[in-house]
Write a structure and sequence with these properties.
Elements: H1 3-21, H2 31-43, E1 46-51, H3 53-61, H4 85-91, E2 93-99, H5 108-128, E3 133-135, H6 139-147, E4 151-158, H7 167-175, E5 178-182, H8 206-218, E6 221-223, H9 229-238, E7 243-248, H10 262-271, E8 274-277, H11 281-284, H12 286-305, H13 312-322, H14 332-346, E9 351-353, H15 373-382, H16 387-411, H17 422-426
Parallel strand pairs: 1-2, 2-4, 3-4, 4-5, 5-6, 6-7, 7-8, 8-9
Helix pairs in contact: 1-2, 2-15, 2-16, 7-8, 9-10, 12-13, 14-15
């Protein structure tokens, strides 16, 4: 899509927003706000930190981008997708970190193979639509591709289980284009604690510290979404380069373990890193975060009560859940609140966007797909964000992190690759 078409799409969105304003209880962005957003997206690539489209294509379309028919609107497809080319264009995306997630249940060589297949899928996606996507591995790539009117495709490995405790595999992933790795997913690895598992290492093990150092040497961003607070502290102590949280929100606003407490928001700012705010309803709505804790407690209680009766715990939980009031709805305004909180605590230079589209089954009202970024940015403009602020949020902050990570790698280029093994590191 050329920039004239992007401007037209944003203007059309503004008309719809204004038309509904008379019926809305809350103030709505104006045409002026949408015009500011159009100028920002023309000048600055909007780089989102996390999108799970690759797994959706693998799971539902046989790993074949052609079968997903992304050139058409996929919102009403079966199964529906949050991501397709028309909506990416309407949303003004300039760069996307595609997650190459594989389930934590995959172990060893199976996890490595599945991750390699996911990396190739992202490369195939770019190859299938060369007029839309191009693989990017540097900040300069992202800016060049955006200037050419295309979308920079970046690769992020979601979960350290994917490397099977091998620094050589980590290097291979980097060589194939991966430019960040999330140290854990929902379970601990053999060298790092997850934020949603029982602590096993007290943060990073000695091998985990070696993983961070090798990522610095390579020029791979350390991603701290999903990890425990102690793992965040250890990673910030060890790293020589800025980090990111590719898809997290504020724990002060929604008490979910996947969110970042204010202490660590400040630490991320001091590190020079970026917290890329997610749109996941359970992480942005305080009510939904509390509800998730209630659900987890109920499941545990029923499992203990009916430990000797197969299936009874599930049936009891379903009856309990049916009797509860309907779940509340998360909103675009809540996401804007999280973005503003991260800005206020970490600083305007340390906030970004990490939607997690196609990684969740529900989304906040107003953020139903990748076409929704202009509405979110217009809401921030309405709240007083300047165009300079919005440029930092959308792309300048994460591009600065990428450049610094690249610079640290250049400074470390004389160092030999690490060949430390998990068992040897444990024996230090």
């Amino acid at each position: 899509m050329n920039r004239l078409n992007l401007t037209a799409a944003l203007a059309a969105a503004s008309v719809l927003a204004i038309a509904g304003a008379a019926h809305a209880a809350d103030p709505q962005p104006s045409a002026k706000d949408y015009a500011a957003v159009a100028r920002v997206l023309k000048r600055t690539p909007l780089v989102d930190g996390h999108n799970d489209l690759a797994w959706e294509i693998r799971d539902n379309f046989g790993s074949d981008p052609a079968r997903a028919t992304l050139s058409a609107d996929a919102a009403t497809r079966t199964p529906p997708l949050h991501t397709d080319i028309p909506r990416l264009r309407k949303g003004g995306l300039g760069g996307q970190f595609w997650s190459v997630w594989v389930p934590v249940e995959l172990k060893g060589a199976d996890a490595v193979q599945a991750t390699l297949e996911q990396i190739q899928l992202v490369r195939d996606l770019a190859g299938a639509h060369p007029d839309v996507f191009e693989l990017a591995t540097t900040a300069d790539d992202v800016e060049r591709i955006h200037r050419q009117g295309r979308i920079a495709s970046l690769i992020g490995v979601e979960g350290g289980h994917s490397i099977d405790n091998s620094l050589a595999v980590l290097r291979a992933f980097y060589g194939l284009g991966a430019r960040y790795m999330t140290l854990t997913h929902t379970s601990n690895t053999a060298w790092a604690d997850s934020g949603t598992d029982t602590p096993a290492h007290g943060g990073l093990s000695p091998f985990g510290e070696e993983v961070v150092r090798e990522m610095n040497r390579l020029g791979m961003i350390v991603d701290l979404s999903h990890v425990s607070d102690d793992t965040v502290r250890d990673a910030l102590r060890v790293t020589k380069a800025p980090v990111i949280f590719s898809h997290s929100a504020s724990r002060a606003l929604a008490d979910a373990p996947r969110n970042v407490p204010d202490e660590l928001l400040k630490a991320a700012g001091e590190n020079g890193g970026v917290v890329m705010v997610t749109f996941v309803p359970g992480f942005v709505s305080p009510e939904l975060a509390a509800r998730a804790k209630e659900i987890a407690a109920a499941r545990k209680a029923f499992a203990e009560r009916y430990a000797d009766t197969p299936g009874a715990a599930d049936r009891a939980f379903e009856e309990w859940d049916k009797a509860r009031p309907p779940a509340p709805v998360a909103t675009l305004a809540m996401v804007a609140d999280h973005i503003e909180h991260v800005r206020d605590v970490a600083g305007i230079d340390h906030v970004g966007l990490g939607g997690d589209f196609d990684g969740v089954t529900t989304l906040p009202e107003g953020l139903s797909g990748v076409d929704a970024y202009p509405g979110l940015l217009a809401e921030l403009s309405r709240r007083g964000w300047t165009e300079a602020d919005l440029r930092k949020l959308t792309g300048e902050n994460v591009l600065r992190v990428m450049r610094r990570v690249e610079a640290v790698s250049a400074e470390m280029k004389a160092q030999a690759p690490s060949h430390v093994k998990l068992e040897a590191a444990a024996g230090k």
